[in-house]
């Protein structure tokens, strides 16, 4: 096998003749040499008519100098590419040998080595070592012996994190740090978006980080100094005599609120990330340490009510409307629920170019501030939408005596005033950031706005404008203050508990255990791809696993069809025959013919008693045959003219459109010679599994709901009673489009992809609380129970 997986690189014995990447040349023979590097990029596996498979990857030396071409493209072909795709992960250390060298046609664009490494054929070998950042023990002798036959499947890696005082130039690291200063992402001179920050940890070392990416969402979502960041795969390099960190291939970032006693859930746009209880402890330790260090000298965030002339401050507000002034200036109309004590600049703009609310009553105008955004920040305003909550960093309060060169005399209605400017550039962290609904500052801002809104008369003529209503009305402080929005579905509790409603914050501090009634909105749910919510559950060992994807099933069936031990004759306990499948054509154009084996003991006059054993079939062929015959069982031949089940990772039984799986740990499945059955007993899937010693797995649904009310957020699970909640069984959801549509419609009604949070309905829920004690750490969990949905 050309790809060998090791858990730790030995000091000697594995391709010791390593050539540095910088010394590779197309004019030399490197046939006896090897190259070592970290996998920093792995491309997709591509089919090719000549080599069957092709895969491109990039490796980089760990201890390379910045001026050297330390990264190089490697091109793999044939089964080597297939095995590399299946077994190797980004960040693995690899040693490649048996390669040829060719010129890289993309060296000028990707800034990598001028050569490519080409690996194909029997001489090409790749050894893979996983020792950093995975902190794993050395393999046993049995594991080492196993590695020579097949790759080892590793568990989720345990990442190691380096103190900022221990960084070494030229190497890659994972780090945690408290943000001392940051610049929100901004468009750089090139094609990338740039951001920078300065962090510190318990070692006392301060490090600057410079990050580049062509996507805004890959940058850390930092809202204020004092936040905590986790950075994976950053490289230390020297700049002007000081160490700094830059992002590399595979870079990822998580951000946490640095305030004590707040939620430890990370901010990230990634749908998948590695986050454990150890990470939670690290965040808690950094919060505690930072709280006693007085790291942030002063809080620059103030309300409009406290703004004074010539002051620089950070403004947290809600956007009501925006309009372009010219190509270098834009107008943002915002409010934060407070009134500035100074007369504010009034700007007249053509209503046709305003996005959002065009006019307000005199009472509301007193609460609105006009912020003029200049130069490079104009581009940042293009994606802003009325109703968004913003944090505008380093706003300047400008007295009216200062001239506004971008405004003409017709636009300025007041000479003595206070105006707010966001000047161009990124000095002192100038920029604009959209805040999510679950941000604590947004929650506080909403509470202030609710009080203000209740105090303003609502019989104004423009209140009927739907845009105005949604921009000004934030979710109420109490669920009882909202009018239910008719969205097609509603929840109702099916229990008989006589419990009072509690808020989510009250639930968090309540005694563990018991049942609780809440009324909340669904902020988000996971998984986003609902087919991943289907799981397979074993009632015996209590394990839960994902439903295997089509790629895995196809590979297992394909491997079984290549078995080198075909049946020389039918088993003595079966009847042999052939089945014609006109819907499947061989490459020559002939119809497909499959070998089948019918169990003599279980064949009767009723079709429900037929057992069809198939050898050498594909999943599609098994499904096609299951539409006609009741029980189709794919098998593989064994020496001695016997049959055996395929790998239990795939369905062992096909019945109509349904597939049935067995627990690999709890089953002792075998195709027995004389299965014992009662002649009058119906042969259903449970009986078939019992006859052959297979413990059936049951389809279940598992979803995570993020609930919110005015008091905060809460993560709850929907598992045991998901079928009652959706009025759909998990088995139906696995096979029936109608059932899948109902689940999708229900979730879309409770958590629409578009629209304001105020449009989401309030859900009446019964929650069961319980506590676990893992590693001497108490953890509270909540599950939805005794709750069902119905159409309105």
Number of strands: 38
Runs in which pLDDT lies below 50 for 5 or more consecutive residues are 10-15, 132-156, 457-487, 566-593, 598-608
Biggest pleated sheet: 9 strands, mixed
Radius of gyration, Cα only, in angstroms? 32 Å
User: How many domains in all?
Assistant: 5
What is the beta-strand fraction?
25-35%
Query: What is the count of helical runs?
Result: 14
Average pLDDT taken over every residue? 76
Give a structural overview:
The protein is globular. The chain contains 14 helices and 38 strands. It folds into 5 domains: 3-147, OB fold (Dihydrolipoamide Acetyltransferase, E2P) (Beta Barrel), CATH 2.40.50.140; 164-291, OB fold (Dihydrolipoamide Acetyltransferase, E2P); 304-447, Nucleic acid-binding proteins (OB fold (Dihydrolipoamide Acetyltransferase, E2P), Beta Barrel), CATH 2.40.50; 489-530 and 701-791, Nucleic acid-binding proteins (OB fold (Dihydrolipoamide Acetyltransferase, E2P), Beta Barrel); 547-695, no CATH class. The longest helix has 16 residues, at 440-455. The model is unreliable at 10-15, 132-156, 457-487, 566-593 and 598-608 (pLDDT under 50). It has 792 residues and is an alpha+beta fold. Strands 1, 2, 3, 4, 5, 6, 7, 8 and 9 form a 9-stranded mixed β-sheet that branches. The protein has a 5-stranded mixed β-barrel with strand order 10-11-12-14-13. Strands 15-16-18-20-19 form a 5-stranded mixed barrel.
